[in-house]
Amino acid sequence: HSYPTFINVGIHIRRGDINPKDQPERWVTNGQYISLMETLTSKFKDDCLFHIYSEGVPSDFADILNHFGLAVILHLNDDPIVAFHNLVTCDVLVNAKSAFSVCAAYFHKGPKLCIPFSIYFNHSFPDNENFKDIIPVNDNYDFNHEKLLKAFGK
User: Fold this and answer.
1) pTM of the predicted structure, to 2 decimals
2) In 55-147, where do the E strands start and end?
């Protein structure tokens, strides 16, 4: 799912098998994703098209849809192989606290906004060629804007 006139941002939002009560250390709220998305929109104006890969129903993402409208395409309950491929091939990848999107980050050849979590890494990332485009997301769900802009020649 790629639209060449946009910066296609693939966002994995882990839902389904986790919840904020039982796995608070793995839960990222829609509001935290909205913060990241707002920053991307402010840097790239109307050029961002957000592809959200998750489980659930559209109403689970109503706040995101209400905030960004037609700039969001939901890919819910898709074939995991198709979702993985799309996360690997998008222009910018935003991972969840999930091995699924961390693995996609390993193969992704562009900037990756990585939300750290201690199971795999916590504010440090593997010293590996495939992770050279990592842009760590901090605890306030912000990141190094200049590094992302540089990746797009801006």
Assistant:
1) 0.91
2) 72-76, 92-94, 112-114, 134-136
